[in-house]
Amino acid sequence: MSKMPGLKKWRNQMKFFNPLSLATFEIKESISALLSARIRVGQTIYYSYKQMTRYSKKAKMSQSQYLHAIALAYPRLSLRTYQRALAVFERLVLDTGLWISDLEELDFTILARVAESKYLNPYNRRDLVADVQKMMNAGHGYKVINESVSKALEFYKKYPKKWPEHMEQVDRRMADVKLNVGLAQSKIDEMESPPQLPADYFDLGIPGVVFPWDKPEPE
To answer: 93, 103 in Cβ contact below 8 A?
Structure first.
């Protein structure tokens, strides 16, 4: 009998985390946004720089100068953070063709080390990211994973592998295709079903969405 109060408390907690709970859905969305935030920062910097320099007739500002300007304008993050966010997006998403959703659950510091190594080609980077994912799924901690990545980076530094030019073109085209369909969701995994809202969703005091083209029906 002494275990009943604890069991009742556990059941009440599970009721809160019911898959139909709107609060649970919002928590998951917030965590996902938090994990991918720095990669999204890199994505925004990349495209904002491209947009700024696309129609410029004067001498273009270099990407490095643009990063310094952003760091001065938004000092809450360091220049190093902006540089790493851009490197991860460019070399792991654009050049390697990985999905943001496949990267957001991995430690950003490890991703940055893989992205910043000049001895790796896109194929090696994909392999390293896949190895990190496997180790995480096997339950290994950050220290073990970080040591494994350090050994791999040291190996490729001593024995860099040349990436065939035709493979670079194929790899880049694969990334371009993903750019056209969006970089957030992987098509390899099954698409997540739309969130199931609770039956009393519209009774929670949340205002409905009114579109400007909606006209009220005549009385």
So the answer is: yes
List the structure tokens of 130. 């896949």
Separation between Cα atoms, residue 197 and residue 20, nearest integer Å: 5
Phi and psi angles of residue 43, each rounded to the nearest 5 degrees, phi first: -65, -45
| Contact of 186 with 99, CB cutoff 8 Å | yes
To the nearest whole percent, how much of the chain has pLDDT over 70? 60
> Sign of the CA dihedral 177, 180, 183, 187?
negative
Contact present, 66 and 49 (Cβ < 8 Å): yes
Rg (CA), the chain: 23
Could you tell me if 114 and 157 are in contact, meaning their C-beta atoms sit under 8 angstroms apart?
no
In the chain, how long is the greatest CA-to-CA distance? 80
Over residues 168-181, mean pLDDT? 59
pLDDT at 74 exceeding the cut of 50: yes
Contact of 108 with 88, CB cutoff 8 Å: yes
> Distance between alpha carbon 35 and the CA centroid of its chain, in Å?
7
pLDDT per residue over 105-149, tens digit each? 888 999 999 999 999 988 889 889 999 999 988 989 889 999 999
Which two structure tokens, joined as six digits, stand for 167? 């493979």
Q: Give pTM, 2 decimals.
A: 0.65
